[in-house]
Design brief:
This protein is mainly beta. The protein is built from six helices and 30 strands. The radius of gyration is 47 Å and the shape is rod-shaped. Keywords: Cell membrane, Disulfide bond, Glycoprotein, Immunoglobulin domain, Membrane, Repeat, Signal, Transmembrane, Transmembrane helix.
């Protein structure tokens, strides 16, 4: 819209904008002297109540009430104070914001409605009447925002080498400002310093359930700290939000063999075990006594169970043969190295018994004579256990002195093991009568068979002689 005029012979052109019209209208309404000549103070418009302060979650609607009595010919207007924006005048909505509406009723209620509230709507709002002097009430709209994690400023999944330090970062936004707590997803303790936590001390500051703050710092990380860590942001406005960070710790393979020595007779079924740990994931396999890889067939069944970075290896030998006597190895390899664990299988003879249920006493060398019976493997293990505990009776030393006990593998060292001496023979079997009697250890002795009939035949003549010639026996 253009305005034209002249002054002292000069012409001018000026654009009239919409804001000019709005301000002109507002000036006419609010600042033009009223036609009311004189009124008592008690007859002027008055507010029934204050405009309240309200809190609203972003995205919801808000309503600011304003109730005026005795308005008469005066006008009510709503103004956003912080931005000095006129929102409504009397029954008209002035702002171009489509989310703002005016609810009025009976020339008394003048409520301002904010739809789909946004953060920029936060601030002070004024309901005013164009009296002289102007009367007004103000209320504050607080727009709260649930927490939201800022991905670009937070840590993603990390892979580090064992022994290094690591720092995880998590940043969030929201109103009020969110607080951040770190936890492990598996609910295990967070180890802040592996060396100090493993030292056996009583300082619990290095092992905690949770850590508050945007950063989580862990020193000298070990494989035990591998897993998922949760950054949880909350500010009292639901819902809270969390972000998962996966921590991977790389290390070369290590192996541990629970039982390094296994005895078995030909035709027996036998299972050997080996435990390995590695990350990245290792390649695991068995080798036989010739050093060849063991594959699954009718005699061999490799069994592998994996949990996280741990692998539990088993090898089931359905029928032990002569060629199985020797050393089997479990091998683990990854990009950082390899290791192996050794298990020695030695041959024992299958247990034998006579039809009358009487066992024979045999030599420890398992001689080739008739009726020789080896010590069962479980009996050997029990006797050795007694010796190790200091509970074995006298006489066991001659058995155990020829035996080299296997040692458990230290997971922090290389994956090799000390095997028993070659040529190990079984300790002798004890003398017992009846199938249910327990075997007792004895030193190597000549083969001897004792039966009830033998004892009777040997002792009866001596007893008769003593009976007939009592003075000679006594």
């Amino acid at each position: 819209m253009e305005g034209r005029g002249s002054s002292t012979g000069a012409s001018y052109v000026r654009l009239v904008t919409r804001s000019d019209v709005v301000w002109a209208a507002l000036a006419l309404v609010l600042f033009t002297p009223l036609t009311v000549v004189s009124e008592d103070k008690d007859e002027l418009p008055r507010f029934i109540e204050d405009v309240p302060n309200i809190t609203v979650t972003v995205g919801r609607d808000a309503l600011l009430p304003c109730t005026v009595e005795q308005l008469k010919g005066y006008k009510v207007a709503w103004v956003q104070v912080d931005t000095q924006t006129i929102l409504t005048i009397h029954k008209q909505v002035i702002t171009r914001n489509p989310r703002i509406a005016l609810l009025h009723n009976d020339h008394r209620s003048w409520h301002l409605e904010l739809k789909n509230v946004r953060e920029k709507d936060r601030g002070w709002y004024m309901c005013q009447v164009n009296t002289d002097p102007m009367r007004s009430k103000q209320g504050y709209v607080d727009v709260v925002v649930p927490p939201d994690i800022i991905d670009r400023e937070s840590s993603g999944d990390l892979t580090i080498r064992e022994g290094q330090d690591v720092t995880l970062t998590c940043r969030a936004k929201g109103h009020p400002t969110p607080s951040i707590v770190w936890r492990r997803e598996d609910n295990q303790d967070i180890v802040l310093d592996s060396d100090k936590a493993d030292s056996g001390g009583t300082d619990t500051a290095h092992t905690v359930k949770s850590v508050e703050g945007e950063t989580l710092v862990m020193k000298r990380v070990s494989r035990l700290q591998m897993g998922s860590y949760l950054c949880i942001a909350s500010n009292g406005i639901p819902p809270s939000i969390s972000k998962r960070t996966q921590l991977r710790v790389q290390f070369p393979p290590v192996a541990w063999v629970p039982q390094q020595l296994e005895g078995a007779y030909i035709g027996q079924e036998l299972t050997i075990e080996c435990h390995t740990e590695a990350f990245p994931k290792s390649i695991n396999f068995w080798t036989n006594t010739n050093g060849d890889m063991v594959v699954s067939d009718e005699r061999y069944e490799p069994i592998v169970t994996e949990t996280s970075y741990k692998v539990y290896m088993k090898l089931r030998i359905r029928r032990v043969e002569k060629k199985d006597v020797g050393t089997f190895r479990c091998i683990a390899k990854n990009s950082l190295g390899e290791t192996d664990g050794a298990i020695r299988i030695y041959e024992i003879e299958p247990p034998k018994s006579h039809s009358n249920g009487v066992f024979e006493m045999v030599e420890a060398d398992g001689g080739s004579g008739e009726g020789s019976t080896p010590v069962p493997q479980n009996h050997l293990n029990k006797e050795l256990k007694k010796y190790e505990d200091g509970r074995h009776p006298k006489g066991i030393n001659d058995v155990t002195d020829a035996y080299q006990h296997p040692k458990n593998y230290d997971s922090k060292g290389p994956g090799h093991h000390t095997n028993p001496q070659r040529g190990l023979q079984q300790p002798s079997f004890g003398l017992s009568f009846g199938q249910s009697s327990a075997a007792r250890p004895a030193s190597p002795t000549p083969r001897l068979t004792l039966t009830a009939s033998f004892l009777t035949a040997a002792l009866l003549p001596l007893w008769l002689s003593c009976f007939l010639a009592a003075p000679l026996c006594w």
